[in-house]
Amino acid sequence: MADDHNHTDKHNHAHGDARLFGVPIELAFAILSGVTLAAGFAVEKLVPSAPDWLPLAFYVAAYFFGGFFTLREAVQNALARQFKIDSLMLVAATGAAILGEFAEGALLLFLFSLGHALESYAMGRAKRAIDALAELAPDRATVLRDGQSIEVPVEELVVGDVVLVRPNERLAADGFVIKGRSAIDQAPVTGESIPVDKAPVADRAVARAQPQALKDDERVFAGTINGSGALEIEVTRIASESTLSKVAELVAAVETGRSPTQRMTDRFERIFVPAVLVLAVLLLFAWVVVDEPFRDSFYRSMAVLVAASPCALAIATPSAVLSGIGRAARSGVLIKGGAALEDLGTLTAMAFDKTGTLTEGEPRITDVLPVDGVEESELLQVAVAVEALSDHPLAQAVVRDGTARLGDGPRLEAGGLESLTGRGVRAGLDGETVLIGKAEMFGADGIAQLGEQASALIERMRSEGRTTMVVRHGTRDLGVIGLMDTPREGAREALAELRALGIERMVMISGDHTGVAEAIAREVGLDEARGDLMPQDKVDTIAALGKEGMVAMVGDGVNDAPAMASATVGIAMGAAGSDVALETADVALMADDLRHLPFAVGLSRKARSIIRQNVYVSLGVVALLVPATILGLGIGPAVIAHEGSTLLVVFNALRLLRYEG
């Protein structure tokens, strides 16, 4: 009957843009239906001398305007072999006409069409909040070609184009800064409230080859707003593949995804709707056992059909899901579907990766400790030569800081890099093997154990919360390099807010040494930390936490993908720079800012509360109306209550668009 109350799609796409007298045509027709209904009623009651055909003509006009779109959709549903609320209302209105109750049938169609139009408008508000994402990027861009600046449609931009962005203009494409400095308002994409300073990249060739490795102060996004400085941007993605476009596409694809509550109401309707149809058929024959005319039994049956239609129930959850996802997207939080929106509000535990999630993800060399007989420069030269072949964050830190410490001078060249997953790397240098990695890598899988001095250096640095990297060249332990990552700004405050929202248990899970993990955990206020974990260990930890309740895994969406997949909700940080994170996570925080996480959890809990309210109102109205119509309540009052409850749940859901956390 109404198991797919799809007003939004049909009305917005079929005739949502058409207008009459300056208002949407569906609303205009509903108003005309009300005007002609009122005219017919006035003539019938106030002008006794008027011919009988005159009020009837007004009522027929009210039928036409009120039933036009209802009839059209009923025909479409019939062709699709579906029986929905539109068909039901037509049956009831036709029944009223057969009984000679033209005024009541016209009232039914007027109220239904008016409710339909207002509901479409209200749902359109939620949908427009999402559609607005795709409209943030400008239509045209100023490109520098052959020494000339020309304006072209953004669709004509290609990777490698240089785009001129004037002060206070919106950026037309994703890319990196090659000239100029400015502060860019990234709130439309990442939700960051403070503009981000941007500067040119040091090496354009490197930036082109590794766009995913761009720093926050180099990378720019389409749809963001430039500050007071002019910039030249090299395009890294065409318009249809920009971060903004991907977010808009993903949100549009998931906005109507069925949440747990929606699936529950669907199951309820599959049982409830046939039961109501059976009841309506039985009431048609009430005149056989009750002393009343068939006309009265027929009327009662039509009234029950109107009253029992679960129209409000069918729209109760989708309207809240649409509003919630739209509100989240406006603040740089991508929630991929109704299931993720509801599940986020049920969490009792969260597991966090350390590097890049709770910390800045940019470790620095703090200690270079060679063993006796080895110079610091030799230790650094070997480490830099090997780690230059790797793209691991710790390797990049060693290369960056090690090169700075070494200064100018000759460099060694290594080759044949082999990754030993979760433990370290192996490479060749001067005809010998170099091993760089965790202490646990040594003494296993045929690798000789560490010497006593190297082991002592490791323990010393771990006690100080350092991440350690042991360097061995051939059979010699060269020494240990200590690195430290700083906690992310706002991490402690964000975790405190999560605890206040009811997240009872928060755990850090890291591949780093337990001592290092515990040191960072203490700084950010976490309950516990687990270190020395391989990727499968992280999955096992999530599974264990999941036995105690609903658990989320918060990480980068790439290295933590297996753990995120095994959690109730996978949450990716800094997804604006990662296509993989956008695709794999259930919830993606577009900015590298943990403070958006309490907002997302709070929004989800508010959405769950509104969904419950909507379901209770929907079921309550049906529970009251069905017995009331059986006992004699007319079709008119039943339609008023029916459409009123539908509008109530939609406008209640729209409150999510104003959620501030």
Automatic annotation (TrEMBL):
E.C. designation(s): 7.2.2.12
Molecular-function GO terms, alphabetical: ATP binding; ATP hydrolysis activity; metal ion binding; P-type zinc transporter activity
Pfam families documented for this protein: E1-E2_ATPase, Hydrolase
GO cellular component, one term: plasma membrane
Regions that span the bilayer: 20-41, 53-71, 271-290, 302-322, 615-633
Keywords of this entry: ATP-binding, Cell membrane, Hydrolase, Membrane, Metal-binding, Nucleotide-binding, Translocase, Transmembrane, Transmembrane helix
InterPro entries: ATPase_P-typ_cyto_dom_N (IPR023299), ATPase_P-typ_P_site (IPR018303), ATPase_P-typ_TM_dom_sf (IPR023298), ATPase_P-typ_transduc_dom_A_sf (IPR008250), ATPase_P-type_domA (IPR059000), Cation_Transport_ATPase_IB (IPR051014), HAD-like_sf (IPR036412), HAD_sf (IPR023214)
NCBIfam families associated with the record: ATPase-IB_hvy, ATPase_P-type
Entry's family note: Belongs to the cation transport ATPase (P-type) (TC 3.A.3) family. Type IB subfamily.
Protein's recorded name: P-type Zn(2+) transporter
Lineage: Bacteria, Pseudomonadati, Pseudomonadota, Alphaproteobacteria, Sphingomonadales
Gene name per UniProt: cadA
